[in-house]
Design a protein that fits this description.
Blueprint (H helix, E strand, L loop, with lengths): L13 E7 L2 E8 L2 H11 L2 H7 L5 E16 L7 E19 L4 H4 L1 E23 L4 E13 L2 E8 L3 E7 L4 E15 L2 E5 L5 E7 L2 H7 L1 E10 L18 E8 L4
């Protein structure tokens, strides 16, 4: 018996879908190889990749909202409890890259120069509010995550047998990861900062002197955290026990 398929391999069809919590973010449908090729050009930015090596400084800036929610919970006292959260981010990346060789595959040599300077900031604010009808009382939790560093790289490859890599840090201090939190209370329209519990962990830890002498760099961690390790005391969670300061940074050991 002759079997005839009801589809053609030369004309594929399908779709790509991207959802977050059931909400459609991206949707692409194709009925041929040509349409599939156009989708890949949109999803994979080939022109952006080409522009990276165009010996021109490029800047990418983006910002948006991560979360924006509010939820009202009834209570047995009759006063509603309102929980809300808001998060946003800001991203700023500047980069430069160039290859001096016209055809590195034929010449078997490569002279590459690249510069990268990313900066990321993200804020997340949550609040718990009790509506007393004639007035409101509120507790806020604010947090900020921050990263900012710069990197320069020179790569020279000769005949695939000799290679030279030079990495530079133009900034004296590079913030790899930084987080700050605050607790605030609001009563009668006035906000006040809450300092949390008295017991704190605070200090600074850096890499060994041998690493500093060898590479001329040191990685340091600065911290100021609430001490909730005492099991005999009834503490709230770490983030609600007081402000948190935590930094990881890469520093030049010799600024001369």
């Amino acid at each position: 018996f002759a079997y005839k398929p009801n589809y053609e391999f030369n004309k594929p069809n399908g779709y790509f879908e991207h959802k977050i919590y059931g909400n459609d973010i991206n949707f692409h449908h194709f009925d041929s190889f040509e349409e599939l090729s156009q989708i890949f050009k949109k999803v994979v930015p080939f022109e952006r990749v080409k522009s990276i090596f165009s010996s021109k400084k490029e800047t990418f800036i983006d910002s948006g909202i991560v979360v924006d929610v509010s939820y009202s919970v009834p209570s047995s006292t009759g006063f509603p409890l309102v929980l809300s959260g808001f998060g946003a981010y800001s991203l700023d990346i500047s980069y430069f890259a160039s290859i001096k060789n016209d055809d590195p595959w034929k010449s078997k040599s490569l002279d590459f120069t690249g510069k990268l300077r990313p900066s990321l900031s993200m804020e997340l604010n949550t609040a718990m509010q009790v509506d007393l009808f004639y007035d409101t009382t509120e507790i806020k939790f604010k947090s900020n995550v921050y990263s900012n560093y710069a990197l320069e790289t020179d790569i020279v490859l000769e005949n695939y047998t000799r290679a030279s890599v030079n990495v530079k840090l133009p900034q004296d201090r590079n913030d790899i990861f930084s987080i700050r939190t605050q607790l605030l209370s609001k009563l009668e329209g006035k906000e006040s900062l809450l300092y949390g519990i008295d017991d704190k962990y605070n200090g600074t830890s850096c890499t060994w002197p041998a690493v500093e002498e060898t590479f001329g760099l040191q990685v340091c961690v600065d911290y100021n955290l609430p001490d909730v390790s005492d099991q005999n005391k009834n503490f709230p969670s770490l983030i609600l026990s007081g402000p948190i300061n935590f930094d990881i940074h890469l520093d030049k050991a010799d600024l001369s």
